[in-house]
Amino acid sequence: MKKGLPDCQRPESVSGYDDWYTVIGAPGLTFCPGCVDSVFERTIFRPSIRRLPQLNLNNNISCAFGSSPWLRLAWLLTLQQHRTDLTLLRDLADIEATSEPCPGGTEATRSWYGLRDREGYFVKDFHICYSDVRKTERLLPTLSGFFVRLPQRSSHGMYTCGIRAEGNRFSAYLDALIATHERALASRKGPDPMPFVDLVERKTRLRECTRDNMLTGGLWHFMPSVPSLTICEDCYEAVVEPEVRRNSEVAMRFNRTIQPVYGEGMGSSCQLYSRRMRKIFQRAVEDNDLKYLARKSKERREAELRLQERYKDVVRLAKRLSRDSAGVDDERRLNRELDRITQEWQAKWE
After folding, report:
1. Which of 64, 98, 132 is a domain's end point?
2. Which pLDDT score, from 0 to 100, does residue 157 have?
3. Residue at 258 is within a domain
4. Same structural domain for residues 251 and 322?
5. Is residue 296 part of a domain?
6. Are residues 142 and 187 in the same domain?
7. Tally of domains within the chain
8. Is the pLDDT of residue 38 over 70?
9. Model pLDDT for residues 155-178, shown as the tens digit of each residue
10. Which domain covers residue 241, as residue numbers?
11. One domain, residues 230 and 199
């Protein structure tokens, strides 16, 4: 969903900066200086952007362009529709401020919506929170009523959101919703939900990507010659399978069926969910360079195991110090070490 937008320097929440910007009338939106310069500078929208007043440097803040694909879509639609104001961005900020936040991948009670299939039944195992329904309907207005409130017995259950922004399926879902909206505009008829229903039903039959969570005894796609490059069903379908259909020699070396990985040690995780590893895979496919892919996979796996072990050691030490009534300074030191491990993983290897 970054189409046409530069990379953001502060997509994750960070503290220690007081140079944030916002949109006049929407103080909940925060932008880093880099995005202001690359996105708004020398446009008619620049006068609507203001520096935020002095902030507490201890506050953790993220750049809206880097952290919110919904906001990136709002910006792209603003340009596409030749709008002369930032109403779509302000409307999204208002939705964020007036709706319960999307619970993402955490099970929570919300006012849940679903999707009806061809027979009129709700698609199984697919739930979308009201906040994301509102965002969809605001940005893609032909889809008003596209998602339907679940029956009373299900509408307030404990679920995760199927269109959560941090999920690996989000981009595919959002692209499909945009395509549905554009077809409805072109035909001047109501939206046809069936292509999106088919996509959701196909996706929900697969085990959802668990990203860098280590699993023991899991089933994976992998190359027999490179067993460290384990790929979940979700990412295999999204990334590898299209290259198999193009007869890529690299892609065709992966097992077509999910299988156990023997001798996996502390466990395995999906190696192809991140933007970095997907770029590496695409380069290997384009260059037909299996050695490059194997080397990068081996480096990542070694770093993953090393950092996982360090993380566990710090957690064990923290528990022991907690039993011994350690002081605040020790707790802060260990928290900083955990942050350093996480930052190294995200910055260099993920």
Report:
1. 98
2. 83
3. yes
4. yes
5. yes
6. yes
7. 3
8. yes
9. 778 999 999 998 889 989 999 999
10. 219-349
11. no
Q: Which residues contact 79 (CB under 8 A, 6 or more apart)?
A: none
Q: Per the domain annotation, does 246 fall within a domain?
A: yes
Q: Are 198 and 257 in contact (CB under 8 A)?
A: no
- Residue that is last in its domain, among 204, 237, 252: 204
Check whether residue 47 and residue 114 sit in a common domain. Answer: no
Q: From the CB of residue 153, how many other CB atoms can be counted at a distance below 10 Å? A: 7
Per residue in 293-350, pLDDT (tens digit) is 999 999 999 999 999 999 999 988 888 877 766 666 777 888 889 889 988 998 899 9
Whole-model pTM above 0.90? Answer: no
